[in-house]
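pinned: reference chain
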Amino acid sequence: MTTELNDVNFPHVAQAFKVERNTHDLKSGKKSQVIAYGITSKSPELATAAQVLQDNRQHWTIENSCHYILDWNYDEDRSRISKGHGPENMTRLRRFSIGLIKSKGVSNVAQKLRQLSFSVRTVLDYLKISGNTHSSPAAGGLE
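pinned: its C-alpha cells
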C-alpha cells in the first residue's frame, strides 16, 4: 500500500496497492504468480491493507459469480452479437433476468431458467404480471 500517488494530480485516489496471487494447479503441479495493481479512494485511516484485500476479494467473488451464471446459462462468451450496442444491451437483459430470478429468493438460477424457458406463459405466471395467472403442476412448482 502506498499514498505516493497523492502527490500526482489524480483526483479521488487515496492509495495504490499491489496484490500478488500465487496459484498451484493440483492436477499438473504447475505453480504460477500473477501481480495486479489497483487504486482506491479510501484513505489509510479508513482502509488497512487487510481491508483493501478483503474488498478486492469480495468484488471478484461477486464478479465471478455473475460471469459464471452469464457464461454457463447464456453461453455469453460465444455470443455472435457484435453490432452497435447489441452486446451491451443483451448483457443488460441477461443480467436483468438473473436479477429478477434472484430477487425471488431462488438459489439455483440455472434450474429456474430451464423451467422458465418452456413457454412465455410460464414466465408471465412466475412473475405474476399477467391478468389470469395460475399455478399448475406442469409449471414445475414455480413458487
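why pinned: The radius of gyration is 22 Å. The first helix runs from residue 49 to 74.
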